[in-house]
Structures are given as structure tokens and as C-alpha cells.
Design goal:
With 275 residues, the protein is an alpha/beta fold. It has 2 domains: 5-214, Spore Coat Polysaccharide Biosynthesis Protein SpsA, Chain A (Alpha-Beta Complex), CATH 3.90.550; 216-275. 43% of the residues lie in helices and 20% in strands. It is built from 11 helices and 9 strands. It has helices spanning 17-28, 47-59, 78-88, 107-117, 148-155, 170-175, 186-196, 216-220, 224-239, 245-260, 263-272; strands at 5-10, 36-41, 64-69, 93-96, 102-103, 121-131, 138-142, 167-169, 200-212. Strands 1, 2, 3, 4, 5, 6, 7, 8 and 9 form a 9-stranded mixed β-sheet that branches. The longest helix is centred in the C-terminal third of the chain and has 16 residues, at 224-239. The radius of gyration is 18 Å and the shape is globular.
Length: 275
């Protein structure tokens, strides 16, 4: 018998209902469905979105759709929203998901299998397929390293997990302090704290998610706040002796390239640091 789990999803009030429907359906139709979906809402939803949620709940009574409202979170960033959400989740395992992405239907079953087989693994993620229009038209892939030393070494320079693909142990996330109230890098900073505390991670080496991408992701990395928080994270890693001086210089160099270089050069750099 598979364990019960939560799915944690921030819900932006202006998200397209088409995207919300596709995303939630892919969760509700999992081969091992979740016991609950925790939707964190920081702004009143549109009436048509409320109606959509009610319809989905009626169609799938086996999974409780919990809308957790906290309007004080508005404008405080994704880290604060997710920290609140983790506290609302009622089950040991929590899967992250965004309301514009689409899960492969066996994603959660495969992630649960890893967490059940390997009790020392605190986070399990997987590969993703990027798309802009329809999932069948794949624009690219991202596969972080699977596990062990390769994953640790990769984490010194780049985010070691695809955030919307992960499932984690709730108690471990709370032990290391939960998500920090950051507006950028909230996931990378949390994974770093998990790994530096001796917990292990695992990435399935196949896609588990259709990721709705575009140029927004690279543009986001061009904003000053993302650059500043990325640099602060590298310096924190050095203070904690997670990286040495040479690794710090290399990591800072990568952040500078991401911020200052044209998009084309960014893509070349990512190619050589396993994207």
C-alpha cells in the first residue's frame, strides 16, 4: 500500500484557468493520487477560478482540494508562500507543483517509490520537458545529476533539482528551517541547507513533468534581485565551507555570465555545466 502524500501548489489569482485545469487534472489523475492538494492563495480568486476548483473537487472526491488563503503573503515572494504552505500540509511526503505545468501521470508513484526504498533520501526530483505552446512540442530538457557526489558537486554551481518536480520529506524540510522568505532562489537555498546537513537527494533520469517555459526563465535571471540573491547564496556556501575558494570564484563567475552575458552565451555556458 502506497503512503498518502500532499501536493503543494501556489495559486496566482491571474493564472489562466486553462493552465490551472491542465495542471490540477494531471495531479488528480496520478496513478497514485494525492490525499490532498494544498493551494496557497495570497489574493482573492476570480469567480470563474473558484467555480473551476469546485467542479474539480466534485469530479475527484477522493482527493481533498484545500484552498489556504493568507492575503498577508501578497508581495512577499514565493519563499514565504511556500513556507506557509509546507506548514499547512498534513502528510509526511509533499510534492511540489506549479499551476501552469503538467505532470506525467506516474510521476508521484515513482517518486514515492524512491522515498520508501531509501529512507536517507530527503528530496527526490526528476527531469523535465520544456514547452511553450503544447506539451507535445518539446523545446528542451533539463536533467540534473542522479545522486551522490555528482549531485553534490553540481549543487555548488547550479540548482541540483528542478523545483516543480520534487517530492520531499516534510519533517526534514522543517528540521532545516523550511523555505526562507526569499523572492528569488528560494528553492536552491533550501536544497543547499538540506544537503549541507547530510541528507541525500535523488533525481530520476527521465522526464516527470512538462514545464511551461519560454524566455521568461532567462529574463528572470537578468534581474538585479535574482543576481544579488544568487551571489549571496554563493557567499553563504563559502562561509559554511560547503565550497572552497576556487569553487566560489567559479560559481561567482557563472552568476556574472548569467546576469551580464547575452542569452545566446548563457545557453552555451549551461550546455557545458550540464543543463
Amino acid at each position: 500500500m502506497q503512503p498518502q502524500y500532499s501536493v503543494l501548489m501556489p495559486l496566482w489569482y491571474l493564472e489562466k484557468n486553462e493552465y490551472i485545469y491542465q495542471s490540477l487534472k494531471s495531479v488528480l489523475q496520478q496513478t497514485v493520487p494525492p490525499a490532498e492538494i494544498v493551494l496557497v492563495v495570497d489574493h482573492p480568486l476570480l469567480p470563474e477560478t473558484e467555480e473551476l476548483l469546485a467542479q474539480l473537487q466534485k469530479q475527484h472526491p477522493e482527493t481533498r482540494i484545500r484552498k489556504m488563503e493568507n492575503f498577508d503573503l501578497l508581495g512577499k515572494g514565493l519563499g514565504a508562500v511556500l513556507a506557509f504552505g509546507v506548514l499547512q500540509c498534513q502528510y509526511e511526503f509533499v510534492a511540489r507543483m506549479d499551476t501552469d505545468d503538467i505532470c506525467f501521470l506516474d510521476r508521484c508513484e515513482k517518486e514515492l517509490d524512491i522515498l520508501m526504498k531509501f529512507p536517507y533520501v530527503a528530496i527526490v526530483g526528476g527531469g523535465l520537458e520544456k514547452f511553450s505552446v503544447v506539451p507535445e512540442q518539446v523545446d528542451g530538457y533539463r536533467f540534473p545529476p542522479e545522486k551522490g557526489r555528482n549531485l553534490i558537486q553540481y549543487s555548488k554551481y547550479r540548482n541540483p533539482f528542478n523545483h516543480p518536480t520534487v517530492m520531499f520529506r516534510r519533517d526534514v524540510i522543517l528540521q532545516v528551517g523550511n523555505y526562507s522568505p526569499l523572492k528569488e532562489c528560494e528553492d536552491y537555498e533550501l536544497w543547499y541547507r538540506v544537503l549541507k546537513n547530510g541528507y541525500e537527494g535523488y533525481n530520476l533520469q527521465h522526464p516527470v513533468l512538462h514545464y511551461r517555459a519560454g524566455t521568461d526563465m532567462l529574463k528572470r535571471r537578468k534581474n538585479k534581485r535574482f543576481f544579488r540573491q544568487s551571489v549571496e547564496l554563493v557567499l553563504e556556501m563559502r562561509r559554511d565551507r560547503y565550497i572552497n575558494w576556487l569553487e566560489m570564484i567559479a560559481a561567482l563567475g557563472m552568476q556574472a555570465v548569467r546576469f551580464y552575458a547575452p542569452f545566446g552565451l548563457n545557453k552555451i555556458v549551461y550546455k557545458y555545466v550540464r543543463s
